[in-house]
């Protein structure tokens, strides 16, 4: 018997859409809660499985936001994240270019696959009001 994969395709599309749509960099649990509004039967395990598949196929990426939580973002140009210490909101910084820093680190360390993890935090404009 041939198995139809339309249900899993639908689930994956929904999860991708949730991550893409609000640019809020949701956690797996937040994705799960949002997915349940459309598919009330969906389980947390299914959500995790779909997230992993999307990460593996480079449609989304996983990052550590510095709160001991993983968050998810859609794959696009390289960017950094600034996190508000009061409300936890994450802002995309697309204009920050660290290529000179990277080059220098590579030159001095002689490391390959060099990765720079940057934690940028502060107080967002809304919380400053
Ligand atoms: Zn804030
Ligand atoms: Zn982002």
What does this structure look like?
This protein has 129 residues and is an alpha+beta fold. The chain folds into 2 domains: 1-76, Orthogonal Bundle (Arc Repressor Mutant, subunit A), CATH 1.10.10; 77-129, Dna Ligase, domain 1 (2-Layer Sandwich). Helix content is 43%, strand content 17%. It has helices at 6-22, 28-38, 44-56, 99-109, 125-128; strands spanning 60-64, 70-74, 80-84, 90-93, 120-122. The strands form 2 sheets. It has a 3-stranded mixed sheet with strand order 4-3-5, with no helix packed on it. Strands 1-2 form a two-stranded antiparallel sheet. The longest helix has 17 residues, at 6-22. Bound molecules: zinc ion (2 copies). Residues 84, 86-87, 89, 124, 126-127 line the site of one zinc ion (ZN).
Keywords:
Arc Repressor Mutant, subunit A; Dna Ligase, domain 1; 2 domains; 5 helices; globular; binds zinc ion
Please sum up the structure shown:
The chain has 129 residues and is an alpha+beta fold.
Order of helices and strands: HHHEEEEHEH
Number of domains: 2
Helix content: 40-55%
Average per-residue pLDDT, rounded, comes to: 90
CATH architecture of the largest domain: Orthogonal Bundle
Largest sheet: spatial strand order: 4-3-5
Radius of gyration: 18 Å
Distance between the termini: 61 Å
Give the helix/strand class. alpha+beta
Unique ligands: zinc ion
